[in-house]
Every structure is written in structure tokens, then in C-alpha cells.
Amino acid sequence: MSESVERNGRHQFQLQNRGSTLKLAIFDVDGTLVNTKKVDAECFVHAFESEFSIPNIESNWTKYENPTDSGITQAIFQRVFNRPPDDFEIRRLKATFLRLLQDAHSSTPDLFAEIPGARSFFNFLLGHSEWQVAIATGGWHETAIFKLTSADFYINSTPISTSDQAGDRESIVRSCIESARRYYHVDQFSKIVALGDSPWDVTTARALGLAFIGVGNKQQLSKLGATYVVKDYKDPDRLMELLELARVP
After folding, report:
1. How far is 49 from 93, CA to CA, in rounded Å?
2. Each residue of 122-163: pLDDT tens digit?
3. How would DSSP label each residue in the chain?
4. Does the reported pTM lie above 0.85?
5. Which residue, 31, 78, 106, 173, has most beta carbons within 10 Å?
């Protein structure tokens, strides 16, 4: 039996014996775990031009009703072609987007660095006795996995919900919570905290009644209602304290 299989087996047994005492930390990806917001946006914009000859799409994602890969794609196709994209077009866009990210990583791997301390803290929670982890991102599954593995995150079977599941962020986070409940074998988490770096992360947490910790721009996120904002994950003791203190924005 491999070490990873043995560890997962022990982990599942322990989970079954902890019931509703489990707490859940839900992480966003770009700007929250990995510092990929810039390269992600550049490659996404380039993919539209490369595949569909749509240049210079609006890359201020706050201007979109649903700032997710799927929601943005739907909005752009509706604006340019007056129709939604079909499945084949979405597959083409995803494939080109992933290839561009892979090319960017090959030439400049530093563009895919972790947020300082994020990987260590994430791994710490993976083995924690009370806190468990899940990932909810507005990106597509394949590109999200590529960015995380490029930054050496051990995600294995960590519950993850993406824009492949839904076009809006509230639905993505709901899906994430349901996946985490099934994976960790609990009916209800005693506390759920979302961690994110963008305005829509704050508004999504508020809409779903989830506690929230901001990562990154303290002035922006605090103004939107985030009580606690951290620059990075270099102080794990403080982060553990904030997970307990965090409340709905």
C-alpha cells in the first residue's frame, strides 16, 4: 500500500469519527493561493483572440455580471455573436487557454509562484484534526489544477468546484460545500470560512452567510466589509486564530 493511499485511509477513518466538529476552509485560487492573476488574465484574453479573432476583451472582471471563466465566456459570445457558445467552442477555448498557460509557465515559471506561505499553510490544514480544506474557483477545472500543481500544491482528492460546475460564484461555492460534505462524511460543518482576494469573494461570502478572510488588498477588501485581511500566509499561528474569529462580512 502506498504512503498516500495509507494516509488517505487513516484520514477518512478519522473523519468518520469526528462528525460535525469539523470546520471547513474554502480557498479561492488566483490571488489567494497562487499569484497568477496577471498571467491568467493575459492568457485568457489571448485565447479569445487566437481562437475566435476577438481582440482586447474587457479584462476588468468586475464589469461582468458573473466574473467566472464560464460567465465571462457566455457574456462575450452574447455580445459579439449574439448567441451563447456551443460545447465545441468552449472546448477549443479551454484547450487554447491551457496551452497558453503552459507556454507561459515554461518560459517564466515565476509567474506561477505561491502566495508566500500558502502551500505550507494549506498542507498544514490538510492534516489538521478539526479544520479541513476545499477549493472554489471561478476558473475552469483543468487550468485551475495546472496553476496549483505548477506551484507544487498537493491537492490530490481535495474537494474542488470550478466554473465547469456553474457560471456564477455563489453556485460554485455551494457546490464546493456539498462536495466537501460528501468527501469528509459530515452532514454539517460547525464553521465554514471562505478565503479570497477579490471583491466578488467578499460579496459571495456575504450572500451565502459564510465567514470570510481576505487575502491581499486590505484597503479594498476591508471597505467591502471584510473584518480580517492578511497579506500572505507567513504567520500560520495568526491565521489559525483568524479562522476561529472570522465572521460574515
Report:
1. 10
2. 999 998 989 999 999 999 999 999 999 999 998 888 999 999
3. --HHHHHHHHHHHHHHTTGGG-EEEEE-SBTTTBS-HHHHHHHHHHHHHHHH---S----GGGSSS-SHHHHHHHHHHHHHSSPPPHHHHHHHHHHHHHHHHHHHHH-GGGGPBPTTHHHHHHHHHT-SSEEEEEE-SS-HHHHHHHHHHTT---TT--EE-TTT-SSHHHHHHHHHHHHHHHHT-S--SEEEEEESSHHHHHHHHHHT-EEEEES-HHHHHHTT-S-EES-SS-HHHHHHHHHH----
4. yes
5. 173
